[in-house]
Amino acid sequence: MVDVLSQNEIDALLAALSSGEMDADELKKEETQRKIRSYDFKRAVRFSKDHIRSLTRIHENFARYLTTYFSAQLRTFVQISVVQVEQLPYDEFIRSIPKMTILNIFEAEPLEGRMVLEVHPNIAFAMLDRLLGGVGTAPSKIAALTEIETTIMERIFSRCFESLQEAWKTVLDIEPRMEALETNPQFMQIVSPNETIALISLSTKIGDTTGMINLCIPHVVLEPIMSRLSVHQWFVSEKKLRDEQEIEAIKASVSRAQLPVVAELGESTISISEFLGLNIGDVISLNRTVNTGLSIRVGDKLKFIGSPGMVKDRVAVQIDEIVSEGVVERDE
């Protein structure tokens, strides 16, 4: 952001230049000197601001889907929103979460590698309490999970990955699959400690209980699709998805349309007196021989040539040729 000087600051600057307190040549020299910025190689910047904005948009949708999912499952007030999306070393993420927490380790084909959905114990146990008939409050003391509690949590969190799949549709069709549920971060080593990760922090409120849900995605997992996370690609993908949805809607509407299909044996011209004099057993000569195929029309367009027959005591027509743009194509 450009600094704008006030009139007093301008007057003071001009006075300093006039009195010799400041040297204009020195100021120019300082301006042209190369500026040095420190860089921490342990905290490598792998995601650009463009990538961070795209990840934020994706997971804002994820937060909305999660809100709907958990509200339906828990039947109580749930509010989830994205607090921040940042990049940091994996080791720093591990040190920032509680020693006892809920770690949902999962994969998402076609992406290669493992990711983690970390749920703060306050939130996880509030969900558990609600599912087991309570009001949805977290216990004052967090204890180890029993086998029944572990099974319940695996079930509810494995289903929430459907929301993640839906949120990523505009970028990539992924198929998230739960691999394991851990409670001790020290037993979870999905990448090297210095590997850069994207950390998506979701603020979560269930009733009166608040906490965080963190989604950890290593850079090596997203590296093959980094180009798709650009803003330009994002809007192109959204437009492509809308176009595909419109095409599918048109196809669905057209497929429900009803058209008459008529198989014509032939034509004949007779007078009105002959028509009125027709009796049972009379024969009408048509303009086609028995060896000539039937004209099969869809609406008023000639589409097929066929031959008559019977199927299970019912009159039927077998398609022998396809008429395309006035040309008869033989069906081999």
TrEMBL record:
InterPro entries, sorted: CheC-like_sf, Flag_FliM, FliN-like_C, SpoA-like_sf
Record CDD domains: FliM
The Flagellar motor switch protein FliN-like C-terminal domain, residue ranges: 254-323
Example GO BP: positive chemotaxis
Topology within the bilayer: Peripheral membrane protein
Location of the protein in the cell: Bacterial flagellum basal body; Cell membrane
GO CC field: bacterial-type flagellum basal body; plasma membrane
SUPFAM superfamilies: CheC-like, Surface presentation of antigens (SPOA)
Entry's Gene Ontology molecular function annotations: cytoskeletal motor activity
Family label: Belongs to the FliM family.
UniProt-recorded name of the protein: Flagellar motor switch protein FliM
Organism annotation: Paenibacillus sabinae T27
